[in-house]
Write a structure and sequence with these properties.
10-stranded mixed beta sheet; alpha/beta; 595 residues; 7-stranded parallel beta sheet; elongated
């Protein structure tokens, strides 16, 4: 697949090309440092099983094909089997392997028997292995086989998948497991992965080589991510006929948070059109510096995907590419979008490893799926670096679970085994097969479907930006939408700090000017409307939420600290001046901490 415009290699000598079409064996002058180190470690030990954990976009495929080429050259193996999560990725593996001089048959199906002598191996899916593991076991036994288990955590998506992988490839000469997100919510052991007791005695997965997001970011192998969080007022009706209004992102019960989020994502409301328009403005700014940059909206189901596409067409004047999880033409559409310079792609759960478009630079996370695994895989679609200074921009709802995932991008996780799930109906199984459904191409449906609920209306307001775990707020949304498309991570941080400081100073100057004019609003009676107070409370609550995600300090503790420092009653009955004073104080804290 084409991956857009390649940077001039003479301008970026420190950045070796990245797969696809960027560092397949024999196509680049050298491997990246982590790939070289992992290769050296592997070839010195030549273990039967090897687990490489590398952040999405780091080049796991290049590493694996390099290992395969070396083992073939040394006559240690003579056949290769690649197991991938999706049909689309299976084809991508075959394309990359062909460029590396290792022709694979991606059309192989269990029980097919012999393949053409032109091929050195096959590419299959985990679901395909589960259909007939015995046929693959016989094939594996006949040759000295290297099995590459791509995104091996998917071997736990269904018990039959893990059992099939174990049965089919137990006799393999070598097994190379790859993953970018080795953590799962369930506790079924992943086949051919080593587990060792941690300090608490609970077994955890043990990787042979780990290359995390933080390390890759420092090496300019992946892009830094700018998260733009949007809150807003939501209203919905329950089955009992009660109308509820709440602000997205404020402390709510789990059910109310879910309903507020679903209201925000309802295409009939105002939240989605506002956020899509803001994301398109950001994309326009990025394309000034990166002409082929594209954007992707991740939707929950087919109906909302089509509705989002209509909204984008109205916003941009251009029909976006829509990829649905059960379409036969999905792979072709993704390939065409990758090779084009079209602005937007709308996809239904085609994340994890299904969408690989290096030119994606702007994303809208508009799905109710919020597991850590799904979130990490989704963001992984946007972080592949092509040239120095490119930044990924992700728009997302301002809800605690998503902001928590965003602030923990650099945390490395292992797969923890507690109580084993023993059957498909085990009530302790935490994964709900959402990823399995998407990867198997089943029709998507909301995991909240069936709950009594009716969205009534929504509005979107810019909340704050998260960057490298720090939160930044401003009165002006364009302070962030207009950030240049090419900035080094250090330049980005400096710019965000400066803009937040300038915003705080400008707001303080306006308040001082109002006070000098002799008309500060001292009491509620002097405030012209209750809407003014509502706006100030929303701003304060948004900043307190951002402070929580930055420091971990609970909202109530922060509100209490603000009351102690600034005086006055609880925020619900404070007047405008008291609310503004607390807003200024939070901004001062943020600037001081950033400095």
């Amino acid at each position: 697949m084409s991956s857009g415009h390649d940077p001039d290699p003479h301008l970026t000598p420190a950045l070796t090309p990245a797969w696809p079409e960027r560092a397949a064996w024999g196509t680049a002058p050298s491997l990246r440092a982590w790939q070289t180190a992992a290769m050296k470690d592997y070839l010195e030990r030549l273990p039967r099983d090897y687990l490489a954990v590398a952040t999405p976009g780091a080049g796991k495929t290049t590493f694996a094909l390099s290992v395969a080429s070396e083992l073939i050259g040394r006559r240690i193996i003579d056949r290769v089997v690649v197991v991938a999560p999706t049909e689309h990725l299976k084809l991508q593996w075959a394309e990359a392997a062909a460029r590396a001089g290792i022709p694979l048959d991606p059309t192989y199906s269990a029980g097919k028997g012999k393949i053409s002598s032109d091929f050195l191996g096959i590419a299959v899916t985990y679901a395909g292995v589960a259909v007939n593991p015995l046929a693959l076991r016989i094939r594996t036994e006949r040759f000295k086989t290297l099995v590459i288990l791509d995104e091996v955590h998917h071997a736990g998506d269904a018990l039959s998948w893990g059992d099939g992988v174990r049965e089919a490839f137990e006799p393999a000469a070598k097994r190379l497991a790859l993953t970018g997100t080795p953590f799962r919510s369930d506790v079924n052991p992943i086949p051919f992965v080593t587990y060792a007791p941690g300090v608490d005695g609970v077994p955890r997965s043990v990787a042979d080589y780990t290359y995390g997001y933080a390390h890759a970011l420092a090496d300019h192998v992946v892009r830094p991510v700018l998260f733009l969080a949007y809150s807003g007022e939501m209203s919905w009706r329950t089955r009992a006929g009660d109308e509820i209004a709440a602000r997205l992102g404020e402390p709510l019960t789990k059910d109310m948070t879910n309903q507020a989020l679903r209201t925000a994502l309802d295409p009939a409301g105002s939240w989605i059109p506002t956020v899509l328009a803001a994301a398109d403005k950001r994309l326009s700014e990025v394309r000034r510096h990166v002409p082929d940059a594209g954007g992707m909206v991740i939707a929950t189901d087919q109906d909302t995907a089509r509705a989002y596409a209509k909204i984008l067409r109205t916003v941009t004047g251009e029909a976006p590419t829509v990829v649905l999880s059960d379409e036969k033409a999905a792979s072709k559409k993704i390939t065409e979008f990758t090779a084009s310079d079209k602005r937007w792609l709308v996809a239904v759960r085609m994340v994890s490893e299904g969408v690989d478009v290096p030119r994606l630079a702007v994303g809208v996370f508009a799905t109710t799926i919020s597991t850590p695994l799904f979130f990490a895989q989704a963001i992984g679609r946007f972080v592949r670096a092509r040239s120095r200074g490119e930044t990924a921009s992700i728009f997302l709802p301002s809800v605690p679970v998503l902001l928590g995932h965003a602030s923990e991008m650099e945390v490395e996780r292992d797969h923890v085994l507690g109580r084993r799930v023993i059957d498909e109906t085990d009530i302790y199984a935490a994964e709900n097969d959402l990823l399995a459904e998407a990867n198997a191409g089943e029709a998507a449906s909301s995991e909240l479907e069936g709950l009594p609920f009716e969205a009534l209306g929504s509005e979107a307001t810019f909340d704050h930006v998260l960057y490298e775990g720090d939160a930044y707020g401003s009165e002006e949304e364009m302070d962030f939408l207009g950030i240049p498309g090419l900035l080094e991570p250090s330049q980005m941080k400096e710019l965000l700090q400066q803009r937040q400081s300038d915003s705080a100073k400008a707001q303080k100057a306006r308040h001082q000017a109002a006070a000098a004019a002799g008309n500060p609003p001292d009491t509620v009676a002097q405030v012209s409307t209750h809407e003014q107070l509502a706006v100030l409370r929303r701003e304060l609550n948004g900043l307190v939420a951002a402070w929580y995600h930055r420091t971990g300090q609970p909202h109530g503790v922060t509100h209490a600290a603000l009351r102690k420092e600034c005086g006055g009653p609880a925020a619900a009955i404070s007047n405008a001046e008291q609310l503004r004073a607390r807003i200024d104080r939070v901004r001062e804290w943020a600037v001081k901490k950033s400095g």
